[in-house]
Predict the 3D structure of the following.
Amino acid sequence: MSDSSPTALAGVQQVLNTISTSPRIWNVLRRLVEHGFEGEKRVIAEELAPWRDVGQRRFLDFGCGTGEFAPCFPAAHYVGIDPSPIYIRFAARTRAGRFLVNDGTNLALPAQSFDAALVLGVLHHLDDVLVHAAMLELYRVLRPGGILLIMEDVPPPDPGNLAGRAMHWLDRGGHIRNETEYRALFGAGFAVLRMYHMRSGICDYGVYVLRRDV
């Protein structure tokens, strides 16, 4: 069994990798396991209030993927970036807003040009070195006092969430961290305003609301 488990895992992950190359199918799969992203959308509305003072604030969606959360923001004041050209092309066809292909470590965006940024399910795909580089860029493009909302996969705190534990087993991100480990990566330039746990479907997230220091 011990010899077959890694083989089985590799096979399942290969299937998921293949599915992920089809943005439309990948969206359907993710919506099923996360109940239509109701949890994430509620947190975005509460913590960033994108529709308050419309036209006065600019938002960055760091690792926007297929643009699933673009409708949460005013299109004229939203920029989504992602390293996948396939996802960015799909987002540009199906969502309103500005979308750019970028790996997040060297943003082709002006300094202090955003009032808030969203990082949702991104950091657990990056090793510590890449996270540090991304956080430096987020600090650079956010205005002093700007809000950074991070939602990241965490180990399921409920032992009974067997489906969530299975999802972590299958997750293509190899750097799922605990609360202490995530906080250690945020850097001295950000103050942690609050943090809490959120469940979205079978998936568990740590929510971190940060403020860019002056």
The two ends are 55 Å apart (CA to CA). The longest strand covers residues 142-153. The mean pLDDT is 88. Helices lie at 4-20, 23-33, 38-48, 85-94, 128-141, 162-170, 179-185.
